[in-house]
Design brief:
The protein is of the alpha+beta class. The chain has one domain. 44% of the residues lie in helices and 15% in strands. The chain has a three-stranded antiparallel beta sheet. Strand 1 and strand 2 form a beta hairpin. Helix 1 packs across helix 2 and helix 2 packs across helix 3. It starts with 8 loop residues before the first helix and ends with a strand.
Length: 84
């Protein structure tokens, strides 16, 4: 399933704040790509999952999309992606 196109830049920023507070579950730690924001690194897929909470009130499952989709989506929103 494609990433819902209703997730916007502000939803992502809200997700980053949530991740700073709650952390990242071990199963969602980045393996190959990260979103870099204010000197912190965030797993791209987990960011999308959490951003959807602020868009639609529920988490978007990581199984619904691949990392490359998350990278493209976040890049299109203006975020910096790094490969690790």
């Amino acid at each position: 399933m494609p990433i819902p196109n209703t997730i916007n830049h502000n939803h992502v920023l809200q997700a980053l704040s949530k991740i700073v507070i709650e952390g990242v579950p071990a199963k969602n730690v980045a393996r190959n790509t990260i979103l870099r924001y204010e000197k912190k690194a965030y797993p791209t897929k987990w960011v999308i999952c959490q951003a959807y909470i602020f868009d639609a009130g529920q988490e978007w499952p990581t199984k619904n999309f691949i990392t490359h989709e998350a990278v493209r989506y976040l890049t299109d929103l203006g975020f910096t992606i790094e490969y690790i």
